[in-house]
Amino acid sequence: xxxxxxxxxxVVDVQVDFLPGGALAVPDGDAVIAPINRLIDRFAHVVVxxxxxxxxxxxxxxxxxxxxxxxxxxxxxxxxxxxxEHCVRGTGGAALATGLRAERAELVIRKGHQPGVDSxxxxxxxxxxxxxxxxxxxxxxxLTRVVVCGLATDYCVAWTALDARAAGFEAxxxxxxxxxxxxxxxxxxxxxxxxxxxxGFIESGAYTALP
Length: 211
Ligand code: VGL
Ligand code: ZN
Description:
By secondary structure, the chain is of the alpha/beta class. It has helices at residues 33-40, 134-141, 153-166, 186-196; strands spanning 7-12, 46-51, 72-75, 78-81, 107-111, 145-151, 170-179, 200-202.
């Protein structure tokens, strides 16, 4: 077992395409970088996720003739929101944000890499059955509390925090280190769902590592 706390900082999708000017820009998304960089120093364990789609991914509106970004379509695994093309694997838009101190990450989880399945969650793909391997990794490392920050509050952050709880981890969202897309009240719904699932909320300045 690695010495140090049993907390892990999980930095979700802080990527060029989710920042202002990006293909799927999250309003004020770049505001998360400074608090995340300050947090990174206070964790012995940092894991980063990257949205990482093949060209023509099923979550892209352009893959569904006649559909527009932010429409919903029924897929075999359930309803899927359609997005502008974003985070195509290997492109500059999929790169981690410049200035994010991601060199401290011990693991990078890439998700949404199957052409026909999306993955908002860092734990389970949108078919809700295919694991990414993150839960097993954290368990093997003895990491029990997941502190979640990044983009976007109402999609990848929320699904990740909810799945962390479902997998038996403690989960805490850092309120000043997340920003949302907010489609039709999705941020408020996500915050309520997380609270109901036992996800905690803290400000980055209040985080104290476990001894
Ligand atoms: C995300 C929409 C599509 C996210 C990723 O990182 O929250 N949202 N792909
Ligand atoms: Zn995506």
